[in-house]
Amino acid sequence: MNKQPALDSGSFFRRSIFAAILLGIFIIHTVFSFNGLTSRTGIDQAQVAREVARGNGLTTQFVRPLSIQQMTENGKVLNLEQMPETFHSPLNILIYAGALKMVGADDFEKHRMQENDKVYALDRVITVTCSIFFLIAIGINYLLISRIFDRKLASVVALVMALSEYMWQITAAGLPQMLMLTLFSTACYLTWRAVEAQEAERSPLLPALLSGVFFGLLALSHWMTLWIFIGYFIFAAIYFKPRAVIAGGLSLIIFLFIVGPLIFYWNQSGEALGTAFHTIHGAGNPSDTAMRQLSTTGFDVRGLLIRTAQTTLVQASNIHNYLGGLVLAPAFFIALAHPFKRSSIANFRWAILLMWILASVGMAIYGLENDFSDPNQLHILFAPLMCAYGLAMLSIIWSRCPLSQQPGLIGNLHFAIILLVSSGPLMIHLKSLSQNKPNSLSVDGVHAYALNGLLNKITDERDIIVSDQPWAVAWYADRHAIWQPQTLDDLVAIETLAEKTNPIAGLHTSSEAYRNQDIRTTLYNNRDLTPLAYTSWISYLTQDTNAGNLSNNKQVAPLVDPNSGRYPYRASLHGLFEPSTYFSRTPITLQQ
After folding, report:
1. How confident is the model at residue 176 (pLDDT cuts 50, 70, 90)?
2. pTM, whole model, 2 decimals?
3. How far apart are CA 388 and CA 174, in angstroms?
4. How far apart are CA 254 and CA 218, in angstroms?
5. Terminal-residue alpha carbon distance, the chain
6. Angstrom distance (rounded) from CA 34 to CA 27
7. 103, 178, 456, 547: most buried, per Cβ within 10 A?
8. Between β-strands 504-509 and 569-574, what pairing exists: parallel, antiparallel or unpaired?
């Protein structure tokens, strides 16, 4: 009789500790330190997902003026209460929709905030979903890196990922990056299997084409990742054999994945590339400008090269943060010069490099803010693999040190130091929690209760609101919200279009119009509606409701003047630090 292998108690103990660490950090970031979603893109995708969960299909309550113009120019029926979603890729939204449906989020009243609530319950559902994908991504990268190098190095990378405060902050943003990391890591796992097969003189056809399936799913998570696929396609068409079959198969696979959304966008907006393509007009600057204009100009390349160069420099100077703060991830570029003995390891790094270069080009063209949680941030997908190559280089150097021959901690001192440094930001975060600092009532200028509890109650479910914070109004207040345009003429044009079906009910202003901006930037972004942006501040600071109306201003007076404005009735939703005001067309009453 064959004896069963004895249980490796040491291995079981280490895995148990790792699982406990993961669970503990997961609970900390989703329960104790979570203040709400921090990304407006994450908030926007969440509100679209709720519409899907309600059975309304891919529709959005956040209306961009550019979307209105696209539909009117192409002869589409405009219904501001049933606007198609043509900006975001659909996959992450559909996953959020499933999670929200499971908790009954399609019923707004079931999750309404109370006055003492500091976090909207559905925000937590979104961040838990993101965190679960992050945990899955850690597991996939462990399997991948253990095949490329060994289990010890894979374990260190998994721990570095788990201890990365930057990555956990991205899960709190509500962005699709963690789903993308899972799909990209799976695609890379299959690519590595194809590389192994090629080196062993076996057919790489099946894993190479299967990786194309996951790159297709990745594209449905964020259209920017098509740049990554282009890099993979070039590598696969050159490296794998039979070249023509693999290149043709990958082309067919990616076409089958993207043709459906392209047809949907064409049918809904009249443009196959939807609304998001026009963010290229704001590359290197906030793309808000293009989205808030009631016009669809032709492809504008003026200044595109200089903006692309500027964004390239931003990427180069912030590469460590963009790579999730994973220590030694940037050392991947040094590892390119190392002659690895195994040709599969040496060749696979060129696939990583090619995909990263093409992704960087895409980010440079479409813009990337100096923020590791930017929605267009694709560097984070490469961080685990780059970190693995960097650690491999460090291990090679360490092996030449006499201390490396010592057993236990001394022999693995280089890994211990890396883990200690990686955990620094997380330790600082835990220290701030230990000081019992209260959760902020507002996150990045969004006061959830002011919208969820107050604005929702003083408006009707059919009301359409023009707001400088429409993603938040759509998600927290569950109201149709049009992004405040940059000019009074565009606002009047939108009002005229709305009059045909359902007139604009009111204007909502918040700190979004000027937060973290100097006066010149605020003037540029809001043009002749700039006085409206400061109305709440002036009114609150002077404690004079009339002072905030700026009734002598020719642009604002026709809008909010108590005597002659189109929206003469006012409700203050929040106070000094994040002033928020609602101007209504009709007298304001509190709905029960």
Report:
1. very high
2. 0.92
3. 26
4. 10
5. 75
6. 10
7. 178
8. unpaired
What does the block give as tokens for 39? 């990304």
Q: What is the CA radius of gyration of the chain?
A: 26
Condensed to tens digits (0 to 9), the pLDDT of residues 420-477 reads 888 888 888 877 776 665 455 556 678 888 899 889 999 999 999 999 999 999 999 9
Cα–Cα distance for residue pair 67/14, rounded to 1 Å: 53
Provide CB contacts within 8 A for 46, sequence distance 6+: 37, 96, 100, 122, 123, 126, 174, 475
Contact (CB, 8 A) for 456 and 478: yes
Place of tokens 């329960």: 31
Q: Are 567 and 559 in contact (CB under 8 A)?
A: yes
Of the candidates 93, 9, 20, the one whose C-alpha atom is nearest the C-alpha of residue 54 is: 93
Q: For the stretch 416-445, what's the b/e string if a residue is b when 16 or more beta carbons lie within 10 angstroms of its beta carbon? A: eebbeebbebbeebbeeeeeeeeeebbbbb
The structure tokens listed for 157 are 């990378």
Q: How far is CA 158 from CA 152, 380, 398, in A?
A: 10, 14, 20
* Domain range summary for the chain, segments of one domain joined by +: 124-434, 442-584
Residue type, 135: L
CA distances for 330 relative to 151, 245, 321, 383, 572, angstroms: 21, 35, 10, 8, 49
Examine the pLDDT at 284 and tell me if it is beyond 80.
Answer: no
- Cross-strand partners of 62: 481
Best CA proximity match to 348, nearest among 184, 138, 180, 198? 198
Using the CB atoms, write b or e for 135-158: b if 16+ within 10 Å.
bbbbebbbebbbebbeeebbbbbb
Q: Which of 230-244, 336-350, 515-529 has the lowest mean pLDDT?
A: 515-529
Name, in order, each residue with C-beta under 8 angstroms of 161's C-beta and a sequence gap of 6 or more: 137, 138, 141, 167, 324, 326, 383, 384, 387
Could you give the C-alpha distances from 329 to 84, 341, 500, in angstroms and in order? 40, 21, 56
Q: Which residue has the tokens 């400008």?
A: 289
